[in-house]
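Lecture 7 notes: from sequence to structure.

We start with a single chain of 162 residues. Read the sequence below before looking at the structure.
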Amino acid sequence: MDERQHCRQQLHDLLHAEYDCAGKLQTLLAEEATALTKRDADALEQLVLDKNALLQQLETLQHSKQAVLSRAGYGHTAADIETCLDWCDERGQLQRGWQLLLERLAHCQHANRINGATLESSRRYAQQALSLLRGAAIPVSLYDPNGSSNAGHDNGRSLAKA
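Now the structure, written as tokens:
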């Protein structure tokens, strides 16, 4: 097996493994969204552990891919990866796999951002409820005439009064 074929085979295996791992992450993120909606703390705790394990696995696969690229004389940027894929795979099959992986990772990133926003919203709601129970004042978000937030400043109006 020559250098190109060897590089192609290694990248094929790594891209396939990354794609599978990202698919598991995508499924897990959907489960996390459900657990957040249901406020299932036990499920969330396990999902966070599982998510961290998958992220570690993706990182390990990425390091392996970078090592293959380095041995072939390429850098680690997306453009370097695409150039290397063009070099070692004349049929362009790996390029399609690379694009599918990037799409799946983008979906994961989007789902993770949504889950993070949901979690932050729930955290703020719980914090406000605790403040009410403790009899503490709840800070009111204020907005200036430009619509910018001025939480804690006296020169804006309460959103309820705006």
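Residues 4 and 87 are 7 Å apart (CA to CA). Keep this in mind for problem set 3.
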